[in-house]
Amino acid sequence: MRKGIILAGGTGTRLYPITQVVCKQLLPLYDKPMIYYPLCTLMQAGITDILVICTETDRPLFQSLLKNGHQWGINIEYTIQAKPEGIAQALILAEPFLANSPCALILGDNLFYGHHLQATLQAASNMTGASIFGYHVANPQAYGVIEFDQYNQVKSITEKPAIPKSNYAMPGLYFFDNNACQYAKKVLPSPRGELEIVDVITQYLNNNNLTVNILGRGTAWLDTGTPDAMAEATQYIAAIEKRQGLKISCPEEVAFSMGLIDQQQLTVLANQLIKSGYGQYLLSLLNKNFPDEMH
User: According to the model, what pLDDT value does residue 110 have?
Assistant: First the structure.
């Protein structure tokens, strides 16, 4: 059974001073804490056993917000990242939790939304080896960049290249088989002093065991690591939710739609938040029949 990892550690220095007292994954993106968005992405992929990696200071806050996940029909555990040393470090820290299971690793500040996203995530989860995504961006030099050959096969992946070889960035969501932890242990610190996730993925590429799924124009991927990016994400979420009357990345709704909780539990959760529009929205779900995914 595939397990999930949310990397919510780090210092958030690009967001100072607002992250000097609270980590960015607990900050709001419109009407929800930021961490709800990656959490729902994992749930939509069919993952119900999830590890949150955070700092020792932030762990009580995450536990107060997310608890053990049972209220949403899932299991959430926590482990400490004493010092941020790269994304690949998450796989090493998660090794006891994974217990040789395949995993999906998502960054705590990444947001995904779009038509048929749930089907795309579940298809990636069912693949062998490593499965990552490619997303066309205007500024690829800020990300890990995927290079394709003339046959549209992956040729290389380079972290933050000065001269990008394509406009396809690699979002912060990765599906790995049970070799990921061992591959991560082989990674040496980069010139930035970090264990780069690109170096883990390159090992899969060299073993011809890597799949890249292109996220098309119907899918939004937002990285919310800067004040501008957070503001843009909030505006995007607000516009979609107000237009459609449907919420993006609402864990109660995702859990209910996937059969993880029943009407009685949804009512309990809604009543706890009844003084807000969020709680009223949850109650409205009891009388709706949704023919398609929209989380």
Answer: 95
pTM of this prediction?
0.95
| Cβ–Cβ under 8 Å, residues 5 and 39 | no
Closest CA to 174 of 102, 104, 222: 104
- Is residue 17 very low, low, confident or very high in pLDDT (cuts 50, 70, 90)? confident
**CA 121, 122, 123, 127 torsion-angle sign:** positive
Q: How far apart are CA 279 and CA 92, in angstroms?
A: 38
The average pLDDT across 184-210 equals 95
Nearest by Cα to 106 from 141, 135, 132: 132
Rounded Cα gap, residues 51 and 197, in angstroms: 18
Render pLDDT for 169-178 as a digit per residue (tens, 0 to 9). Answer: 999 999 999 9
Taking Cα atoms as reference points, which of 90, 49, 112, 84 lies closest to residue 295?
A: 112
